[in-house]
Amino acid sequence: KKQKGPFEYLDQVRQHLARLPAIDPSTRSIILCGYPNVGKSSFMNGITRANVDVQPYPFTTKSLFVGHTNYRYLPWQIIDTPGILDHSLENRNVIEMQSITALAHLRACVLFMIDISEH
Fold first, then answer.
1. Please, which of 21, 31, 54, 81 could form a disulfide with 99 given CB 3.0 to 4.6 Å?
2. DSSP-assigned states of every residue in 2-17
3. CA distance 19 to 30
4. For the purposes of burial, counting CB atoms within 10 Å of the CB of 91, is it exposed (0-12), middle (13-18) or buried (19 or more)?
5. Would you say the C-alpha torsion 109, 104, 34, 26 has a positive or negative sign?
6. Average confidence (pLDDT) over 48-65
7. Structure confidence at residue 1 (pLDDT)
8. What is the CA radius of gyration of the chain?
């Protein structure tokens, strides 16, 4: 019974890791990032076979999504990230930290998207 606690914790970690998308570090990658509701997921759905939920309100994307496409016969993985707001790192929530972590640790081209119709 003493070891029940650690095994429960390991099972929770395993379940959490199973929910994360499989990102291949050896495949060419593009990270889509930007403010909430600027069209990142719509762009992802348009260039990949992914089916990311798109809604007319911000903060629809709550985790990383990975789609795949080919360009000039080369495979690419496109990584859709949750929207990030302009505030300090200490004030970011868990959802925003997924975007920050992807930007910090994945070797990828970063496509920062903005919505020019709002300005």
1. 81
2. TTHHHHHHHHHHHHHH
3. 21
4. exposed
5. positive
6. 88
7. 47
8. 16
Distance separating alpha carbons of residues 105 and 119, to the nearest angstrom: 31
**pLDDT tens digits for range 59-95:** 888 889 999 999 999 999 999 999 998 888 888 888 8
Start-to-end CA span in the chain (Å)? 61
Burial (CB count within 10 angstroms: exposed 0-12, middle 13-18, buried 19+), residue 32: buried
| Average pLDDT of the residues of the chain | 87
CB 30 within 8 A of CB 53: no
φ/ψ of 57, rounded to 5, equals -130, 155
Choose from 20-24, 51-55, 71-75, 88-92 the range with maximum mean pLDDT.
Answer: 71-75
Dihedral sign, Cα of residue 4, residue 9, residue 66, residue 75 = negative
| β partners of residue 29 | 77
